[in-house]
Amino acid sequence: MKHIRNFSIIAHIDHGKSTLADRFIQFCGGLELREMSEQVLDSMDIEKERGITIKAQTAALQYKARDGEIYNLNLIDTPGHVDFSYEVSRSLAACEGALLVVDASQGVEAQTVANCYTAIEQGVEVVAVLNKIDLPAAEPERVIEEIEDIVGIEATDAVRASAKNGIGIEDILEAVVAKVPAPEGNPEGPLKALIIDSWFDNYVGVVMLVRVVDGEIKPKDKLLFMSTKAQHLCEQVGVFTPKSMQRDALKAGEVGFVIAGIKELASAKVGDTITHVKPAATDPLPGFKEVKSQVFAGLYPVESHDYDALRDSLEKLKLNDASLHFEPEVSQALGFGFRCGFLGLLHLEIVQERLEREFDMDLITTAPTVVYQVLMKDGELLEVENPSRLPDLSKIDEIREPIITATILVPQDYVGAVMTLCNQKRGAQRNMQYMGRQVMLTYDLPMAEVVMDFFDKLKSVSRGYASLDYDFKEFRADDLVKLDVLVNSERVDALSLIVHRATSIYRGRELVSKMRELIPRQMFDIAIQAAIGAHIIARETVKAMRKDVLAKCYGGDITRKKKLLEKQKAGKKRMKQVGNVEIPQEAFLAILQVSDK
Amino acid sequence: MSTIALPIGKSNWQLKALPPLSLYIHFPWCVRKCPYCDFNSHEARGGVPEDDYIAALVTDLESLLPLIWGRPIHSIFMGGGTPSLFSAQAMDQLLSALRARLKILPEAEITLEANPGTFEYEKFRDYRAAGINRLSVGIQSFDAGHLSAIGRIHNGDEARRAAEIAASHFDNFNLDLMFALPGQTLQQALADISTALSSGPSHLSCYHLTLEPNTYFHRYPPELPDDDAAADMHDAIEARLVEAGFIHYETSAYCRPGKMSYHNRNYWEFGDYLGIGAGAHGKISFPDRIIRQARYKQPAAYLNAVADGSAVQTEETLSLEQLPFEFMLNTMRLADGFPVELFQERTGLPLSALNRGLQQAESLGLIERDHQTIRPSAQGRRYQNRLLELFL
């Protein structure tokens, strides 16, 4: 066990985590050069395009250190986005050490700080690495100071590296061997293994990535999953190098995969503890929690006959994404579809993109919303995930919205702009702390404001320098109202929103004006109205198109004209017929484009 | 591209009667390519190879004869390009060769497209003498400013003169006009109509200038009147022409009573047509199939292909699925639509093949129908693309 080092990498998006991981694998000979497609650990296409690691993956590396000994280094990759903070915490719980990788020219970002705090809380040894040291803009001294100020760890001897150009790779591995403690655990004790991640494989069913804390796990073992009490027979264990290699056993301190004939991801929950049926561990490992959806949106097929195909696609996605929730929903305007719950906005976008790209679905997505708690006059407490389902106001005592605590790290120059933004979004300042050239702002913000466009706005007012991390705080009552949209006098349930009364009139006006731009002219005038209750607060009209003809269709060559009409028809694919009006997908998300006062 | 080709001998699909047959002849040269034009036309640097081309057209036609044995020709249309770059003698020679090989009905409409330049209009009389009985002059506008804005090489005086000379030699002639030209006002568009009417044409084609892909204007779009202004012009032109006794019988075509273009109407009624010349398209029905042909587009490639034995670049047998849409694409351009039995006559399919689209179109108010005819409603003519989409 003393030759094992379990560690992960904490880094902001773009600070070079994936490239660094690739270098380690290359350096330790895990893959031949020809097998190295760029950034091996991020295997999903979307991850490659967006540069975000979505699911934790791992690589077991054999490293011959300068002391002549061979060490087993287990690199556990972690997601790098705020939507996936629970998964990050489980990855870190499986490690004794973490490399804090900071871009030597850009410095520390809020996401990194939040993950570092999680690591430190869990007693993980944090080792600082300055990446991109060879860039002309690198300022190692300033960044070291920043790390010490903000994160509060010793960083003077931080390894200086360039993952891209292979500088300092061996030094980092040496630092891992020297500074990260070897795992401790009882090899003889009853089995305790932490599920770091799980995913579905078409051939073997659910694959679990686990960290064995105590005992050992072998094929044919009878396994007990402590949160669900489910029992499964272990079929295979092994490690990823990152290619999968079967082993006879996984022992205390090791990280590897377990396959146990499990069909559903829900039975292998991230953070759960695996033990033997006999002898069973008495207590599970700490930190397990059920993941709850934070953001909800309706997903509807453009063509109603694609409903079954959409359900099948969602079920397939769920096989590999336990945090995706969905249930059937009927909208008067959009027909049959699904109300889906997501970890956050990014998660929503990824699911939407995968449905469109991998499953070839044409979707209408409604504007994202949060869960509201509604206290009825009869004392009943409801959870409302869809604004159009808000009960009649006369029966409501109060509406409570989720409040988050947001931690924003921003260079001093942009503090004013960020504070203005937070105030516009109904934020309440809780703390403000100067840390070197950066300022750490803490705000309580309504989550509904954050899921809309807060992140984009934050980036734009700070020229990309501000970074954000947030945690759910509480449900809090406020003066909230339902804003309805009527298209040709018909209320379109899929466009309803819950907004604060103070901004409702402005939002309603901006929303219908934005929709007027997004709905194309049709064969008749289209009235778009915003209403609060029976009270119309704004109206715009999309004037009828005057004509839509092919002026010339000549000489018998009709193939081009046919193609033109086919193209025009295909352009309407992302439009949903509501009544007799065709509404494009963008118009359902028009609220995301409404700017603040 | 077709998914199910008409299965020869394997189904009971058949045409009970063959439609009327027309002949289109393409002349692919122009003095200069106009910036809005997406037709198969090429600048005639150093003149046109008149004799070679006429000879090639005749050879090309001969290769088609086995496909149309015994069928009479109802109309001939010589289009381009600029057919009037060819001499009257060349046209005479061509028509003689056609008469020797085809059964051309005595009353057949024979149209020639001509440009309004001096070089061309001096030949109008001789074209008439060669047997051409309908002239279509590409006036576009009588306004010098608008003509130059759309890259035309003739001026307003030449346009007026060409219309007068056409009138003096042809009792049946068409003027092509365009509206919604760069910088054009409603009054200016109507002024063009009035000038056109003063020469006494039997037929007017009024096209909305549209920017087609693969044209100079598509790449460098000029500033055009907006959609509403263009629609106003369209409505005002229609009103003005109806007042002058014209019938608006097709999307962009107007005629005096009885003076519809037979040739064009045959397209709109899903009739048959042979196409000879560079880039010409043809549609030919047989009892057991319907084919479309396209010929090589580049003049040099066409001449070589004819010399090598066949000018046909692509030939396609239409699938049953394609027929309803293609039929509607054509017939819904006609204000009077079509008599219900025409659908089965031309496509060999029962009218029920159109049912779904017709029902939707009816509920959207885009068509009108009774037991005899199906025609686009006023709405359907205005929103023709929307109507046609229902049959895609």
What is the topology?
The complex is a heterodimer of chains A (597) and B (392).
Chain A: E1 4-11, H1 17-27, H2 45-50, E2 58-64, E3 70-76, H3 85-93, E4 97-103, H4 110-121, E5 125-131, H5 140-151, E6 159-160, H6 169-179, E7 192-201, E8 205-214, E9 216-217, E10 222-225, E11 230-233, E12 236-240, E13 244-247, E14 250-251, E15 255-259, E16 273-276, E17 295-301, H7 307-319, E18 325-331, E19 335-342, H8 345-357, E20 363-365, E21 372-376, E22 381-384, E23 396-411, H9 415-424, E24 428-435, E25 438-446, H10 447-461, E26 467-478, E27 480-487, E28 490-491, E29 497-500, H11 501-518, E30 526-532, E31 535-542, H12 559-571, E32 575-578, E33 581-584, H13 585-588
Chain B: E1 21-27, E2 29-30, E3 42-43, H1 50-64, E4 73-80, H2 88-101, E5 104-114, H3 118-121, H4 124-130, E6 134-140, H5 144-149, H6 156-169, E7 173-179, H7 186-198, E8 203-208, H8 216-219, H9 227-243, E9 247-250, E10 253-255, H10 262-268, E11 272-276, E12 281-286, E13 289-295, H11 299-307, E14 312-317, H12 322-331, E15 338-339, H13 340-347, H14 355-363, E16 367-369, E17 373-376, H15 378-382, H16 384-389
Parallel strand pairs in B: 1-4, 1-11, 2-3, 4-5, 5-6, 6-7, 7-8
Antiparallel strand pairs in B: 8-10, 9-10, 12-13, 13-14, 15-17, 16-17
The mean pLDDT of chain B is 94
Helical content band of chain A: 10-25%
For this structure, the CATH topology of the largest domain in chain B is pyruvate-formate lyase- activating enzyme
CA gyration radius of chain A, whole angstroms = 27 Å
Any idea what the CATH architecture of the largest domain in chain B is?
Answer: Alpha-Beta Horseshoe
| Strand percentage of chain A | 25-35%
The CATH homologous superfamily of the largest domain in chain B is named: tm_1862 like domain
Mean pLDDT of chain A: 87
- Secondary structure: number of strands of chain B: 17
Summarize the biggest pleated sheet of chain B. Answer: 9 strands, mixed
**What separation lies between the terminal Cα atoms of chain A?**
60 Å
Q: Which structural category fits the helices and strands of chain A?
A: alpha+beta
Tell the overall outline of chain A. Answer: globular
Fraction of helical residues of chain B: 25-40%
Strand order of the largest sheet of chain A: 11-10-16-7-8-15-12-13
